[in-house]
Amino acid sequence: MRVVFFGILLALCGLFVFTVASAPRRSEAGPKPLRVEDLRVPEKLHGEIEVWSWNIAAASLKRVIPGFNRIYPNVDVTVNMTGANMQTRFFLSLCAGVGGPDVMQLQSVEGPQYTAAGRLTDLTEVAGRYEDSFAPAFWKNCVFDGRVYAVPWDMGPCAVFYKRDLFERYGIDPRAIDTWDDFIQVGEEILEKSQGKTKLFHLPTSHGMFSLFEILLQQAGGQIFDGQGRIAIYSAESLEVVSLLRRLLDANICSNVDTFTAEYFASLQNETVACYPTAVWFGGSIKDYAKPTAGNWGVFRLPALREGGVQVSNLGGSILVIPDQCRNKEAAWAFVEYALCTEEGQLEQYREFDLFPSLMTTFDDPFFEGADPFYGGQKVRKLFSQEIGRMHILHRTKHWNEATRYLGQALSEWAASGEEPEVFLARVETKMKRRIGLSLSPMSLSLGEEG
Predict the structure, then answer these.
(1) Do both 149 and 162 map to the same domain?
(2) Most CB atoms closer than 10 Å: which of 150, 204, 262, 354?
(3) Count of CB atoms situated within 10 Å of the CB of 25
């Protein structure tokens, strides 16, 4: 039975991939757009919709249902978070054209491969008016061929979570850390003063290199693909990032503990590492796994690649989409709009579940000015909301996941090899071109070398 199912799954996946590759341009064919005139008076909107989501994201969507029903009392919303392999089931439902939810959660990085497939509802006319309320870095990847097929939900602005007691013990002032070179120097001081007991942060070479690479690539203004979908990995910006990763590794200030393992979470309460440069959502993990450390944490902005450089980046985030097979698109859109495009809906989810809102108009709410006792009274919400509009746009194409999986593996191998950054990036570019079958961007340094 498993063999038969696996064969069916492969066949359907092949069909879906073929659909992505051969789908006609949206201007010529595709799902009928959801139009403003299709929306009715809220009291007259009725029916049932099913939303697929998981973990705290599902719980947060359930939380907004009462507020939604105050406006749309005749729409019954069910959030389904049960069942294994929800994303696989969604994938299969798109292939079959039936059996899917009315609203689906996707990770932001997955969005482009779905929006390019021609199986999602065109939301341009109803969602387009909210474009200026979201950071371009998030809105851009909800758009395909100039049409909107998704709405940003939560995001992961990055900063550095640090342990106040360790920084104080070793005489480190986080306010004096402006660049990543400053950060490396701090790591060397801590390593020396702790007699090797405390590393600066975790940088596992087995599979965790890509997360930091992605954070740094945004700060550098680089790309994996250019705006036309061509391979752009071997660039001056990527070279700057990989060179910094090499300096971090060579300084011996990083712990090689894999992320989200028992040892990793134990480090939250011991002295093996001093800080964690990562996304805002990591704060929830600290509160869950290290409650006794409340008050000992602080946050400072990401170091810049160079003095006066960009100190904002992103890691992670989600979107909501409406499959074209949805039979109650008006009600589905009404729910998406309330949950993601209203300050009430977004703030409710942030207060209760720590999902940092993509809707930038929420940043003016007094909630962002509040002091958080877990961080020693620091206004961390305000810190994470700074300069969101300046976040660099990464061009995430339908090939993004394939490319980044390969790049993650390549970075792990490179970390142990001692290979020069230029040689590494040229090799990665060549292999990526061969694997994906795309041309190189004019920004590629290898083209310049050939000329």
Answers:
(1) no
(2) 150
(3) 10
